[in-house]
Design a protein that fits this description.
There is one protein chain. This protein has about 70 residues and is mostly beta strands. The protein contains no helices and 5 strands. The two termini are about 20 Å apart. The mean pLDDT is about 85. This is DUF6487 domain-containing protein.
């Protein structure tokens, strides 16, 4: 995949976490957070490590996540 920012080839990989991977628009200053209805769940893999497919650009230091097929 070509980087939409610089045009270089991106490296396919995965974002992994010990907890669910969620995109949220609120402030992350709290230690404990209850999921909200407008949160976007990005993690896959029940019973395994929460992960989502991503592409990394080594040139411009960006990570791209396509969540269409999550």
């Amino acid at each position: 995949m070509k980087c939409p920012y610089c045009g270089d080839e991106m490296i396919r990989g995965y974002l992994m976490s010990s907890r669910d991977i969620t995109f949220a628009v609120d402030n992350l200053t709290k230690v404990f957070r209850i999921k909200k209805s407008d949160d976007l769940e990005l993690s896959k893999g029940s019973g395994g490590i929460p992960h989502c497919e991503a592409y990394r650009c080594s040139s411009c230091k960006k990570i791209l996540i396509d969540y269409a097929n999550r």
